[in-house]
Amino acid sequence: MTRRFTALAALAVVCAAVEVVAGRGMSPVDVWDVLNGGGDATERHIVFQLRLPRLLVALGAGACLAVAGLVLQSALRNPLAGPEVTGVTPGAVLGAVTATALGLAGWESPLAVVLAACAGGCAGAAMLWLLAGRRHGDPAQTAVHGVLVSAVLGGFTAMVLLVEPGELGSVVQWLVGTTEGRVWEHWHLLWPWALLWSAAAWLLAGPLTLLRCGDDIALAAGLSVRRARSLALLCAVALTAGAVAAVGALGFIGLLVPHLAVAVFGADLRRSLPGAALTGAVVVCGADAAAQLSSRLLATALDSGRLTLPVGALTACLGAALLLLVVRRTPSRTF
Amino acid sequence: MAVLLAVSSVGALSLGTPYVPPYRLVAAVLEGETTLAGVVVSELRVPRLLLALVAGACLGAAGLVLQEALRNPLAVPEMLGVSSGAALGVAAPLVLAFSLPAAVQPLLAIGGAALGGGLTLLVAGIGRSPSAVLLTGAAVAAALQAALLVLMVMADQLDLQLIYRYLLGSLSARTWDDVTGMWPWLLVAVPALVLCAPVLSVLRLGDEDAQALGVRAQRARLAALAVAVVLIAPVTAVCGPVAWVGFLAPHLSRWFNPAAGAVRWLPWSAAWGAVVVAVADVPARLALAPVETPAGAWTALLGVPAGVALMRSSGRRRTARHGRAASVGTREQLSGLRKTAPVGADDVPPTGAASHAHRSEPGHGSPTLPPAGAAGTEDVR
Hints:
The structure holds two protein chains of two kinds.
Chain A: H1 2-22, H2 28-35, H3 41-76, H4 88-102, H5 110-132, H6 139-163, H7 168-176, H8 184-203, H9 205-212, H10 215-220, H11 225-247, H12 253-265, H13 269-302, H14 311-329
Helix pairs in contact in A: 1-13, 3-8, 3-9, 3-11, 3-12, 3-13, 4-5, 4-6, 4-11, 5-6, 5-11, 8-11, 12-13, 13-14
Chain B: H1 2-14, H2 25-31, H3 36-70, H4 82-96, H5 104-124, H6 130-154, H7 157-168, H8 176-203, H9 207-212, H10 217-239, H11 245-256, H12 262-286, H13 295-323, H14 328-334, H15 354-359, H16 361-364, H17 371-380
Helix pairs in contact in B: 1-3, 1-12, 2-3, 3-8, 3-10, 3-11, 3-12, 4-5, 4-6, 4-7, 4-10, 5-6, 5-10, 8-10, 11-12, 11-13, 12-13
C-alpha cells in the first residue's frame, strides 16, 4: 500500500514538473534557470506568478473533485453518482453565475462566489432528491434523472447569462473548466476551504466505509445512517463548490477518478480517500499539462495563436471515453 | 389543444411592440408593406410563428420516432447526442470562419447529427438496456459539448454571443428565407415518416415479435433513426437545438390519448410539439421585454419537469387501473422499474416470456415499453 502511495506521489511530481515546463514561451532550460534563482524579471514573473499558482490550483481542484466524488458514491451507494450527474456541479455553476450577475460576488469578495456555488450545489442535489424520490433504487435511473436536472439547471444558467451578456466571455471558460490564468488569489481562496472540508471527509471516512456496506449493516454497527449520510452529502457539495468556484465545471473527474482510486487502494475509505485525492490531483494536473502541450503543438501546426485547449474539454473527452468503456464492458448488467 | 394553439398564435402575432390588436391582424397582413404594423406582422411575426410551428412539429415527431424505435421513454435527441452533433456541425464553420453557402448548412447539421446519433448507437449497441443507451448517449453528448465549448472559447466576443444564443435554440430574427429553406427537407421527411409509422407500431412489440411478423427489426430501426435525424437536422440548422421538445411532445400526446397506437400518436405528437414551441416562443419574446430570451431555454426549463411529471402520472394512472389485478408482490418487485418505464411493468412477469406480455400490450395501450421488455427479450435469446 505504501508503495502504491509512493508511486502515485512520484507520478504527481512528474506531472507537476511537466505542467511547469509545458506552457508556451519558455523552454525547460529557462524554467530550470529560474528555479535556481536565475532568469530575468519577466521569466521570474511567469514562473512564480503564473505557472506555480496554476499548478497548485489544478492539484487542489482535482483533489477536491475526486474526494467529493468518492464521498458521494459511497454515501449514495451508487457507482454512477459523480458530482456532475447528481446536479451538484451544474447547480454550483448556476449559483456562482447568478451571484456574479447580481453583483453579489466578484473579485472583491471571492468568498461569496464559493458560498453561492455551495448554495447552488445544495439546490441541485435537492432537486435530484425530489425528482428521483427518496428511494435511490437503480443507480442508472438516478444518473439519468441527474442528466435531466442538469438540463434544467443549464437552462437557468443560460437565462442568467442572457440577461447579463457582459459576463458571457469570462463565464464560458468557467462552464467548461479551465486553469487558464489562475493566480495566487485563487489558490489562497481554494486551500483553506479544501483543507477544511477534506478534513471533514477524512473524519467521515469510517462511517462512509460502513455506509458502503449497506444501510442494514451500518445500522447494526450502531451508525446513525441518516445523519452520517446528510453530513457526507454536505461535505461533498462543499468540496465540489470550492473546486467549481476555483476552476469551473471540470467534467467527469468526480465520476471516474473515485473508481480508479477504489481499484488501486481498495474499498476502505480511510485509505482510498487520500488515494482518491492524490489520483484526482494527478489526473487534473496531467490533463492540464497535456492540454497545454497539445494546444502548443496545435498552435504551431495550425499557425494560429488563438487556439487554447481548456483542460475541461480534455477531461470531458477522456471521461466520456472511459464511461463508454465501462458501459460497454459490462453488457450483462442492466445499468 | 386547438384553443391553446389559436391563443398562442394570436398572441404571437399581436403582442409585442408595436401591439397589433387581434381584430386588426387580417387587415394588417392585407395592407402588407404600406403600414408599420403590416410590415412587422407579415415580414417578422408570421414567418416566426410558422417556423415555430414547423420546428415544433418536426421535433415532436422525431421525438416520438426515437422513443418508439428504441422503446425507451427517455430517448430524446438531447440524450442521444443528436442535437449536440448538429449544433457542432453548424457552429464549427461559424467560428473557424469558413464562408459557406446557406444551402450547405443543413447538410452540415445533418452530418453532425448523424455523427452524434450514429456514434451513440454504434457504441451502445441497439438491443441493449435503455439506461445503457442513455448513459452512452450522455457520454457522447458530453464529448461533443466539450468540442463545442472549445470552439466557443476560441471565438471572439461577438461570435460568442451569436453561438450561445444559437445553441440555446432561438427563434429571434428569422425571416421567410429561413422558412423556405426548410421545405425541401420536409418534402423528404414527411413521406418517409408516413411510411415508417406502421413499422414503428410493430417495433413496439419487441424484436422477436416484429421479426415473426416479417419486419427486419434492425433495419427498420435504423431507417426510423435516419428519419429522425433528417427531421431534427434542418430544424437545428435554422433555429438551434430547441431543447426537450422531443421529450415533452410525445409524452403529452400519450397522456391525452393513452389508448392509441404509434400511428395515431405520431400526428398528435407533431401537433403538440408545434404547440409547445409556439407557446414557449411567446414568453421568450416578451418575458424580459427588451432582451429576447431564447425559446430553447424556456422549453428546457418548463419541458423537463412537465415531461417527468407526465411520465410519472401516466405511470400512476396505469398502476391504479391494473393495480387491483396485479398481485402486491409483483408490484413491489417492479416498483424500481417504474421510474423509466412507468407503465406496462404490471403486465410483464419478472422473468423472461416478455413477448407474451407485449402481445397483449396494444390492448392496454401502454405508452411505453419497459426495460424489462428489452431484458426479457434478451433472456429469451
